[in-house]
Amino acid sequence: MGWNFRMWSAAWLQMVCLSIAVCSGWVQGQDTKPNIIVIFCDDLGWGDLGCFGNPVIRTPNLDRMASEGQKWTQFYVAAPVCTPSRAALMTGRYPIRNGMTSAKRAVLFPDSAGGLPSDEITLAEMLKDAGYATGMVGKWHLGHLPQYLPTAQGFDSYFGIPYSNDMDKTGGPGYLAEVRKDPSYYPQIEHYQVPLMRNTQIIERPADQNTLTRRYTEEAVGFIEQNAGRPFFLYLAHSMPHIPLFASKQFRGKSLRGLYGDVVEELDTSVGVVLDTLRELKLDRKTLVVFSSDNGPWLSFETHGGSAGPLRAGKGTTFEGGMRVPTLFWWPGKIQPGTKKDLGSTLDLMATFTAIAGGELPENRKLDSYDLSGVLFGDQESPRQEMFYWTNAQLHAVRRGPWKLHLRLREAVNYGKEVELAKPELYHVEQDISEKYNLADKRPQSVENLLKLADEHLLDIDPHDDMLAIPIPK
Ligand code: MG
After folding, report:
1. How far away, in angstroms, is 450 Cα from ligand 1 center?
2. Which of 379, 413, 441 is where one domain is finished?
3. What are the residues whose beta carbon lies below 5 Å from ligand 1 (ion)?
4. Are residues 155 and 197 in the same domain?
5. Burial of 379 (0-12, 13-18, 19+ CB in 10 A)
6. 363/434 same-domain check
7. Domain range holding 370?
8. Mean pLDDT by 10 residues, the chain (474 residues)
9. Can you give the pTM of this predicted structure?
C-alpha cells in the first residue's frame, strides 16, 4: 500500500505534535534550569586574590574563573560580620528585617537560642520549590538548634560547622598574643571544641580543622556528582580564612604570605576542583557559579587576617573594607566576560536566582534584592543604584552612585567603639576608593540628598524582633 495524501498529512501532524511536545517539555522541563553554586568564604578581604591585585598570594584558579567570567569590583555584603551578612545572602533582605541583627550582639554564639526565623524564605527554599536539589556544605551561622539548621531552612542535606570555627574555645593560648610572638604560629584543634555535623547530627568534636577545606571540597564534589542529572543548588560556605587558620599539610609553609596565604591558596585549589568537576561532567555550560566573601578581613589578627587592598578598614566596620567583597560570576558560554564596576550585593542573589531558575519571589514581605541578570548576560546597567550600610541594628552609612555618606562610625579597628559623628562625612568612593577625603563641606547638596535617602529607607524599615540575642535558658 502506497502513501496517500491523508496518510501523509496524518504523519505530518503527528510529527508536528511530537515536536511541540518535545520542545515544550524541553522549555518547561528541568533541563533548561541551570545549576547554581555559591562559594562563600569567611573574612576573605577584597585585596586577597591575584585577580583583585594581591601581588603575593597565588590564586590561579580564581584568576582563571575571573577571566572566563565577570569580576565585580563594587559588590557588597549587607553587614560587616558573619551572621547578619549570611542572613542577607539567604533571604535578599537587610538583616534588620529578618531578626538577624542586634544592638546587643554582633553574631550568634554557641549559647544563642535564636536563629533565622522559619517564616523567612531562603534561597534554598525558593530553589527547592522551583525543582532544585539543594545541598549545603560548610559554615551556616544562622542558628545551630535543630529548628534553625540548614535542613530546616530548605536544604536537603548539610555537612559542616554550624557557627564560627573560633567558637567553643577551651583553654589554649591567646591567639593574637601567639601571632605577635611568632607569625608562623599554628593553632591546635583541641582548643576549639566546634562540632562537625552531618544534617542534624554531630559526627566529630572537635572538628579536625586541619582537613576542613579539603573535606568540604570532597563533600561538594560528591553532591555535584550525585545530582548531575537534575538541577541543583549547592551552597559551599568555607570556614576559612576566618581565624584560627588551618590548612592541609600539603599547603602549609608554601605561601610567601605565611599561613594566611597557605589557607587562601588551599581555598583557590578547592575552587579549581569544583570547576574541574563541572567541566568533567559537562555541566560547566549549564551552571552559574558565584564566588564571594561574607565580610572584609579581620585586621586585628595582624598577619593572620586578610587584606582589604586599597579599601579603608575591614571586618566589623562600615567602611568599604568591611563590606565590599571580592566577587566573581562564572557561567561559560552564557556570561559576558569582563570586569564590572556596577553596584551589586549578595542581597541581589535572591532576585537573580529566582529569575534564572524560573522560581517565585517570596511574597508578602519587603525584599532588598535586584535582578542582576541583565548585567551578567547582557550589557545592561545594574538596577542597583544604592547601598545601605547597616551594623548592629543601626544604619551607619548610605551610598548612591559614587557618593557615600557616613552617618555614624565604628573606629577603624574591628569592634572598636562607636563614634558619633558631629557632622556626616561624604566620600566619592570611586575617585577616593580609600575614603580619605571628606567632601561634606564642599558638596552640601549631595549630603542633603543622601540624608533624605537615609530617612526614606528608615521609614521603609519595620524592624523584626531581635532573634540574635536570645540566650539559651539555663
Ligand atoms: Mg565572616
Report:
1. 28
2. 379
3. 42-43, 82, 294-295
4. yes
5. exposed
6. no
7. 32-379
8. 54 55 42 93 98 98 98 98 97 97 92 96 98 98 97 98 96 94 96 98 98 98 98 98 98 98 98 98 98 97 97 94 98 96 98 98 96 96 98 94 90 59 93 97 98 97 92 78
9. 0.93
